Amino acid sequence: MSLTHTSPTRKLKDKSAYIIAGAAFVIAIIPLISILWTVIVKGAKDFDTYFLFHSMRNVAESDSFGGAYHAILGTLEQVGIAALITIPLSLMVGIYLVEYGRGRLSQAVTFFVDVMMGLPSIVAGLFILSVWILGAGFQASGFAASLALTILMLPVAVRSTEEMLKLVSPALREASYALGVPKWRTITKVVLPTALPGIVTGMMLGIARIMGETAPVLLLVGVTQSINGNPFSEPQGSLPLFVFNESQNSLQTAVDRGWAAALTLIILIMLLNLIARLIAWWKAPAASR
Amino acid sequence: MSNERLSPVADADEVEVRDPRSGLTAKAGLGDRLFGGSARGAAVFILILMAAIAAFLIYQAAEAIGKDQVNFVTSFTWDPDGNSTPNGQPEFGIAAIAWGTLVTSVIGVLLGAPVAIGVALFITQYLPRKIGSVFGYIVDLLAAVPSVVYGLWGLLVLDQHMSGVSKIIEDVLGWIPLFKTDGTYGSSMFTAGVVLAIMILPIIAAIAREIYKQTPREQIEAAYALGATRWEMIRLAVLPYGRSGVTSAIILGFGRALGETIAVAMVLTQVPGLVTRILQPGGNTIAANIAVQFGDAFTTGRQALIASGLVLFLMTLIVNYAARVVVRRAGKAGS
Question: A32 CB near a chain B CB, below 8 Å?
């Protein structure tokens, strides 16, 4: 028996492991293809400019027209407000953790950011419900949904900011200090610009994540079929919630609208993901491309 | 606190700050104190936010549980507004929906985790690096699909295929009570479990991929030097190296499955009471129960849902903590 000989059973095991791992990959890809395929094929039926720019006001579920404009507008506003609150807040928390934090406060913050990471989205919705609506007595509105989305985006944004700031070389900071630049100027003029592409990518992935959230929005935006551009009063539409509501109806016309809304939502989220990845790739050092 | 010590200089406006990374010290001016102060303020805000989340949930939940006429922990009924109780008093308990939450999540992990590990091994060990990263990105796309789309797809596409699969399982394993049915299939806890499996797969696969990629080169070379085939190398070097990290990834996936709301709410046909047959329509989870019951709930009903949400929160908290402990313990054992 030569030294290079491998027994048939060992060869067989090796081959089967390869086939099983490959099969796992194929199994994982099948639902992805099936989801994208059905959403595109079924969603394309109703997906047009009429659908994008008309609401469901005075439209019966059995009508074949009607659109998602009120829902798209609502989601963009809710997500926009959540991002406006989250981005500066998470930036400052990230800066605190990396540039200032040592000791108990930063340990506690790191721990609770981890806890928030695992917070089920419906619990974030319940929290805003109990504080904002049951506690403070406000009515359901787009802003209430924004607050819940803020809670969901915050840990993702803090974590990515933290990771990106940690990647900035200490030598850069020291060079800046050596020139007599105060710490806060060093952070805003040297550290942040260096880490910016990565931070932007992280923020956009965070926005993409909250854009598809349905559960907290369901508890907080109320019910409306009409366009409401004001997120601070009266119920507002929401795109993921629109998908959910239309799917709860057995009429084919409603289900078709649900698929078209799902297609709209996926396009929005995939666009955000794509732009985020492009920024990351474009700004990455040439060597790691 | 330790990085900012007050300097004993006469000028009270000047604070000495020390950079924790470089160890350099500098006099802090007004700008530094404002900026550092607001960074600290933002950090403190996170703590206040978490405390507020806990406090408000507990307050509302306690109020509801105080009105509850049955045992909140052991009762199978959910009627907090007293719509069909004899005297219109609230009766609700967490037992049935907590059971459904655990069953669907366990099915999700049992189906999703092995596939995720297979995917991670295939991408890191069998594919060239460049192709691997492209394939990894494709699997990551699964995580970008919003849960409401999973629900829509699960309800209108997957569920049709689940009847056939469920029937085969019943034919083979029907002698176990868990797999018996009344002859109808689909919209079941099993279907919900399959949807959850698909949803947590990219999470587990992404973490496992990162860990397997870091397997020390020397261990891989050592295994090959002993004449190991690729599979033997994986068993000797890659799997042991990744064990604790991947275990923790699976636990994190389980936590995610526990809290998944809208996809489960859309797929499951909700049936009140305890459901033990996982292949036939019926069952409920804590999160899905909140989403479905909320629209018709009055004050006590909403508070009862908050109470159930608090239980869900505690469950995910324990699970996520367990994931951390696994990693920490392995880190200690390794060093």
Answer: yes
Going from N- to C-terminal start, the domains of chain B cover 15-67, 91-334
Cβ-Cβ contacts under 8 Å, A123 against chain B: 53, 57, 259, 309, 312-313, 316
The per-residue pLDDT for B2 is 40
- Minimum distance, in Å, between the CA of residue B272 and any CA atom of chain A: 19
The mean pLDDT of chain B is 88
Which pLDDT does position B328 carry in this prediction?
86
Q: Which two tokens stand for residue B30?
A: 């007004």
Amino acid at A252: Q
Using CB atoms within 10 Å of the CB of residue B47, give its burial: 0 to 12 exposed, 13 to 18 middle, 19+ buried: middle
Judged by DSSP in three states, B283 sits in coil
Estimate the crossing angle of helix B299-334 against helix B239-259, to 10 degrees.
170
pLDDT range class, residue B174, cuts 50, 70, 90: confident
- How confident is the model over A125-175, as pLDDT tens digits? 999 999 899 888 899 999 999 999 999 999 999 999 999 999 999 999 999
Taking 70 as the pLDDT cut, the residues of chain A under it are: 1-4, 284-289
DSSP for B4-67, written as a single string: ------S-TT-EEEE-TTT--EEEE-HHHHHHHHHHHHHHHHHHHHHHHHHHHHHHHHHHHHHH
Q: Which residues of A touch B252 (CB under 8 A)?
A: 118
First to last CA, chain A: 47
CA dist., res. B133 & res. A201, Å (int): 18
Q: What percent of chain B has pLDDT over 90?
A: 59
User: Tokens representing B22?
Assistant: 């470089």
For residue B69, report the phi and psi dihedrals to the nearest 5 degrees.
Answer: -90, -15
Q: Are A172 and A194 in contact (CB under 8 A)?
A: yes
Q: Which chain B positions have a beta carbon within 8 Å of A212's beta carbon?
A: 145-149
What are the residues whose beta carbons fall under 8 Å from the beta carbon of A59, sequence distance 6 or more?
A65, A66, A225
Q: Does A37 touch chain B (CB under 8 A)?
A: no
Give the list of residues 6+ apart from residue A50 with CB closer than 8 angstroms, or none: A65, A67
The one-letter amino acid code at B38 reads S
Tell me if chain B has a CB within 8 Å of the CB of A79.
no
Q: How far B276 CA lies from chain A's nearest CA (Å)?
A: 25
B168 Cβ contact list (under 8 Å, min separation 6): none
- For residues B25 and B16, the answer to whether their CB atoms sit within 8 Å is yes
pLDDT tens for each residue of B199-257: 999 999 999 999 999 999 999 999 999 999 999 999 999 999 999 999 999 999 999 99
Q: What number of residues does chain B have? A: 335
pLDDT at residue number B331: 73
Topology, domain B91-334: MetI-like fold (1.10.3720)
Pick the closest to residue A216 from A100, A93, A129 (CA basis). Answer: A129
pLDDT for the residue A59: 87
Q: What is the CA radius of gyration of chain A?
A: 24
Q: How many residues are there in chain A?
A: 289
